[in-house]
């Protein structure tokens, strides 16, 4: 991958032709070591569920429905400020017992999705701008799914750990390599965001967690992702319009990465965030919704199929699904990306079955 370019995929036939010879690994043996060091890290520490969570969720839904019903019909006024309809005193966060990650409740609201044509680094697939109303509260994991989280999943399910990954070679080139989520080609710890997972892997994880908890976990839609990333802001970046402020709030390709010999020729932002590769999931503070790392660190798989524009896109927060989709959309930008890819409206896409060393995911849960 050239970090000066948006994440995209090569054509599927070419991808299959370039695929390295697969080498399977013993999932049980590897997970035994990783899970021992990961216990209690990354959002799966054993904790009892808060009392009356289901009752609190029912109360939240009822009050949110009343707030949304009081709003005027949705109008495509892209210059209108965002609106957030939070039920005062309602549930703000929870976890579903020992198996559930820490979840943050996202209030219902309305915002303008996409970027104006005047925005620096804008690409055509970020338009046309359109108004989206998310007329429901939902929950998002406070952090992206971590190595510790994924270790537990693999140990429990025996998920395929074949070393097949598109990542960085020893000389810093973006190519096919022998790597996977446990060996992505750079240092990772239990509280690092998991990477080198395909869209299929992410979907399998959400299905596993839904079965473990009995609750409706899933990936976010693109609209939900941008809504949460913006958290009420209208600027190019979630933190404002100044890209140079990134090193205090998110992980991108910067001087910390450029200091690595294999990335010496990268085009980077001129500051240091202290993380040449991925940062631990809590390394930077939360946004106004209380959610960490919606931009930077890793791209996140979504439910949507990527499309070349927003013409015909849903306006209710639901995902865009296209028959025969081969390229789900990814959001957020990564530690290896130029700063423009961390904009709130930035989009990417990848082939659904390929594992990329900059792709991870985070969780949503219906309430």
Question: How would you explain this protein's 3D organization?
Answer:
- This protein has 367 residues and is of the alpha+beta class.
- The chain has one domain: Alpha-Beta Complex (paralog of FGE (formylglycine-generating enzyme)).
- 20% of the residues lie in helices and 14% in strands.
- The strands form 4 sheets. The chain has a 5-stranded antiparallel beta sheet with strand order 2-3-6-14-9. Strands 12-11-10-13 form a 4-stranded mixed beta sheet, covered by helices on one side.
- Helix 2 (27-38) crosses helix 4.
- The longest helix is centred in the N-terminal third of the chain and has 17 residues, at 53-69.
- The relative contact order is 0.20.
Descriptive tags:
alpha+beta; paralog of FGE (formylglycine-generating enzyme); four-stranded mixed sheet; 7 helices; 20% helix
